[in-house]
Amino acid sequence: MKMDLIPYHKKKVLIIEDLAEMRSTLKSMLANMGVQVMETVTNGEEALAKLAFNQFDIIFSDYELGRGKDGQQILEEVRHSGLIPASTVYIMVTAAQTMEMVMGALEFEPDGYITKPVTLEILRTRLNRIIRTKDVYQEINRAIDHKDINGALEACNRLAVENPKFALPAYRIKGKLLLNENRIEEARDIYDTVLGIKRVAWAMLGMAKVHYLQDQLDDAQKLLEGLANTNVKYVEAFDWLAKVLEAQGKLKSAQAVLEKAVEQSPKAVQRQQELARIAELNGDYETLHKACRKANALAKNSVFKNADLLIRYAKSMQPKIKHGSSRDQKQALSEAMTLLQTAKTEFQLNIGQTLKCALVEAQTLFNSGKEIEGRLAYKAALSMLNNEELLSLDDRLDIFAAKLQFEASSDAMAYGAKLLAQIGNNRRLQANYYRVMDFHLSKQPDERLALLKKRGQELMERNDFEEAFDVLQRAARAPNTDTDSQVSALTAGVNLYRQGTRNTELLEDVNNLFKALENLNTSDPRYPALEKLRLQWSQQNNGAAR
Amino acid sequence: MTDPVEQQLANDLLAASIHEIKNRFGLLFAQLEQLLQALPLDESHSHNADLIQDEAQYIGSELVRILASYKSLDSGASANLDQQFLLDFLEEKVARHASTARARGLQIDFECDEDLAAFFDAGIISIVLDTAIYNAAKEGAKTILITAEHEQGSGELTIQVHDNGPGFPPAMLDAAASGPGTIKAESGSTGLGLHFARRLLALHREAGDSPRCGTLTLGRSDRLGGACVSLHLPQ
Predict the structure, then answer these.
(1) I want to staple A110 with a disulfide (CB 3.0 to 4.6 A). Which of A72, A92, A485, B73 is the partner?
(2) Which of B95, B114, B119 sits opposite A121 (nearest CB)?
């Protein structure tokens, strides 16, 4: 076995560790191994500052760093912004319990892991091994650092031929490089080859990306869902599954997938932003607000801060500004205005962002009771807009919501009717259109109920029971609800269940509706329909009971 | 208790309470360690303190291992078969046991071809090997040797844990095939650990098409004369 001594005395080491005791233990162990130059920092901010002006050969980062950024976030940020070269060895120190979660981060992988408790024996063994392995990829990494992608690809080929033991890892790097370069066909060849040998998770994920990029959404979905059922917890697989679902127009499912991913990695800032974006498209203010709040805290002082996030966060505060307690109202108001100000001063906004920023500002003023200022700000915003064709339909829905608030009802409704025609058959945008209307009619309960019932019927006729149930439940839960609404909601719910949707929430909702309709008179014309639903329900449930 | 729902509930309850015990124990152990360090101890007492710490570490890692087994079994997910280099894998495994092994006067080594690579779920195999190593140590072995090689022909990967302890009682070798009940009655926790290990290996299969899964066999070591636990992993 070739065992050249590693010249530790020439290596410059950075230790990122919040616990003093662990810092000194690690330092003395490394000194014992011959390391002479070591620097330590206690958190992510310090690490980034240190890395901006200094080069290190080896970085040890604890994964769990208390309140601030965790080791994975630091790694993502330094690799994303090119703060450390590919040739730097990055080692994540983790507790055994968090190992699985840490290893789920595929896109930005450290060069190696060391699990606690760290003894000199383990440190020496692992570090030697990690550095020797890194040396194997030296040529590839050097080319990557020189932005010589073709050189890196050739180095991968050479490694695979000259050292067959590393053929698969070489293919893995190659696939990633090719995808980054958008050379999709070549990446497909690589993943095809690997999957022909073994169905390893990273190749399945790679192939899923290829499918997605080539618009083979069903294939991508199948692979990603398969991955979710293996022992490996690639959080990245969730991200791509959400993308695939979004492209298929299944935005609610996409949101559910991202919520699950965020649960696994609550500190991943880009994922929180993705969740916020999708929640906004779904009109889910609660999730929007939560995700924005987290993303905003995580993105502070980082390259991941951006104008969309700031504007979105301000938008998510509208319900609080309008309906919150006076203390909440005041706080949300000042926060929202600060966010919008920051967006305007720190970023170069494009036309869509400028308009959206102005509209949110107008809403913020209006919702906080400053109606005249709100109206003026709205007028100013609209005057900026000379070519509406540049805006997406989502942006125009925002305008519609503002028009309902600020303009005469008939003008706003005319705009809405035109918009609805343009939306055509897009389920998601239709749903959002009706959500805007629903919100607008919150002070006119009779009109609101009528709207929800009409929309619910339309959806039922199209067999879209998922959306229908959502809408009709809102009708059935309204204070002025009626038997028609309840029976319709029940019909949608039972059909949804029969289509295969299974969750406790649906079960509970349906049971509650049956209970609410318990006393429906047998002579009521709707009674036979109810009886039929009851029968279908009991058949379904008997079949499902385990 | 044959109702699967009730069974699941009982399992979850057990897992949750082990989790809690593990955390509490961690706190307790940390306190104890501080206390022991602060005390002026003479030679014999400090030996006792070492023993206490050693034992506490053992209990701690045992609890972590049980929880990890339970989690792997409970998820019902198929294994994450990725390419592993046996040299790296076994080197780390041995290093991880080195300090506790030394405290017990136990020698642990491994042997494998430098370029040996195979597909397996490192998490699952790691738990199974830990089980075999702990069992060997508990039965009084002083030398443990882990070997790994590809079987000629089938191409299956075999990892063996040899020791120089008393070996498995004949009854256990006979009963090995007949399930957990008999083993448990014979030799208490050792058999249970192996039962878990066997079930974990059964998870060791590719999703979907491949019906072959990992297996575990018990025997006498031809290298060290004691017990030999063999893991067979289809490739």
Answers:
(1) A92
(2) B95
Instruction: Identify the CATH number of the domain in which residue A39 sits.
Output: 3.40.50.2300
Chain A nearest C-alpha distance from B173 (Å): 31
Total structural domains within chain B:
2
Residues B65 and B153 in one domain: no
DSSP bridge partners of B146: B110, B161
On whether any CB of chain A is under 8 Å from the CB of B222, the answer is no
Would residue A336 count as lying in a domain?
A: no
Determine the pLDDT at residue A98: 61
The lowest-confidence range among A37-46, A202-211, A352-361, B65-74 is: B65-74
Report the alpha-carbon distance of residue A307 to residue A340 in Å, rounded.
9
Using a CB-CB distance cutoff of 8 angstroms, which residues of chain A are in contact with residue B72?
Answer: 231
> Is residue A291 assigned to a domain?
no
Residues of B in contact with A202 (CB under 8 A): 82
Give Cα A242 distance to the centre of its chain.
8
Across the interface, whether the CB atoms of A231 and B124 are under 8 A apart is answered yes
Per-residue pLDDT of B155-204, as tens digits, reads 899 999 999 999 888 877 766 555 444 444 344 445 567 777 888 888 77
Tokens of A103: 């290893």
> Chain B closest CA to A165's CA: distance in Å?
6
Rounded percentage of chain A residues whose pLDDT exceeds 90? 58
Q: How many domains does one find in chain A? A: 2
Mean pLDDT of A367-375: 90
For the question of whether the overall pTM of this predicted structure is more than 0.90, the answer is no
Domain region containing B20: 4-75
Chain A contacts of B114, Cβ < 8 Å? 1
What's the alpha-carbon Rg for chain A, to the nearest Å? 28
Same domain, B202 and B123: yes
* Overall average pLDDT of the A55-75 stretch: 89
Kindly write down the DSSP assignment for every residue of A370-410, as one continuous string.
-HHHHHHHHHHHHHT-S-GGGS-HHHHHHHHHHHHHHS-HH
Is B78 within 8 Å of A231 when comparing Cβ atoms? yes
Boundaries of domain holding A86: 1-136
3-class DSSP assignment, residue B31: helix
Q: Closest Cα partner for B112 from B100, B129, B136, B124?
A: B129
Identify all chain B residues contacting A226, using CB atoms and an 8 Å cutoff. 207-208
* Among candidates B78, B117, B121 on the partner chain, residue whose Cβ is nearest the Cβ of A165: B117
Q: What's the gap in Å between the CA of B185 and the closest CA on chain A?
A: 32
Q: Of B41, B75, B109, which one is at a domain's C-terminal end?
A: B75
For A204-257, how does the pLDDT look when each residue is reduced to its tens digit (9 = 90+)? 999 999 999 998 999 999 999 888 777 666 788 899 999 999 888 788 889 999
Nearest to A74 by CA among A294, A275, A298, A233: A298
Which of A136, A170, A189 delimits the end of a domain?
A136
